Amino acid sequence: MTTSTSRRGFLASSAALALPSLSSVAAAAKADDIKLGVATYSLREFPRAQAIEIVKKLDVEYVSIKEFHIRYKSTPEEWAQGRKDFEDAGLKILSGGNIDLKKPDELRTMFEYAKACGIPMMVCAPAHATLAQVEKLVKEYNIKAAIHNHGPEDKEFPDPKSVLDAIKGMDQRMGLCIDIGHTSRTGANFVEWIEKAGPRLLDVHVKDLKDPMVARSQVAVGDGM
Q: 24-33, pLDDT tens digit by residue?
């Protein structure tokens, strides 16, 4: 897929074929509203400049930046330079993460990092104990928090239900990043939970598994179950 038309057609046909029950979602969101991007975690073995070139060769304009490509422990000036490198390449930063938000004394630093890097949404892994503090910072910085469910090993947020239950009644910028592989491994139906999440669904991480219950069976998208 090398043109915007083919990507648009792919997204539209995928929504029609894979999500036939999501009539309410389809009514609210057209294919053009779905932004297909690359999480640079997938390019973690490459330095920033090379990762940017790879994304450009894929003809994808959206990225979710992982810490490998703009380091947390860099200076604010280095954060800004990292942002500039992505934007000068014509890439649009949709999110950053996964960002750990479990340590109360590090939360503000992570929001400062996101602000400097031009990250409008943090794909994140908070703890139940830090949720209230995270919500306050979401309001202060106007940066969304998309809580990523990490599967049965995760004692905080293993599945979409655990996220949605925890943020019920919170600011609407507190939402869910559903990981379809990790969700599958909990035995939950990720298509159903995409629909149940409604406007709380802020992001989707796509992966594929040979065995839908085994994390180490990950393969290229399209080669698994």
A: 333 445 666 7
Q: How far is it, in rounded angstroms, from Cα 187 to Cα 224? A: 17
Residue type, 179: D
Question: For residue 142, is the peptide bond before it cis, meaning its omega torsion is within 30 degrees of 0?
Answer: no
User: Which of 177, 153, 151 is CA-nearest to residue 164?
Assistant: 177
Residues 36 and 21: their CA atoms lie apart, in Å, by 21
**Four-residue CA torsion sign, 19, 207, 61, 99:** positive
Distance, in Å, from the CA atom of 208 to the CA atom of 68, rounded to the nearest integer, reads: 23
Cross-strand partners of 205: 179
Chain centre to alpha carbon of residue 42: 12
Structure tokens at 66: 């992982």
SS3 category, 122: strand
Residue pLDDT, tens place only, 163-188: 999 999 999 999 999 999 999 999 99
Strand residues in 66-154 grouped as ranges (E): 92-101, 121-126, 144-148
Count CB-CB contacts under 10 A for residue 127. Answer: 16
Residue with tokens 């400049």: 49
Q: In a 3-state reduction of DSSP, which class is residue 16?
A: helix
User: Considering the entire predicted model, what is its pTM?
Assistant: 0.85
DSSP code at position 31? G
Is the separation of the CB atoms in 155 and 149 below 8 Å? no
Q: Which of 71, 132, 126, 70 is nearest to 103 (CA)?
A: 126
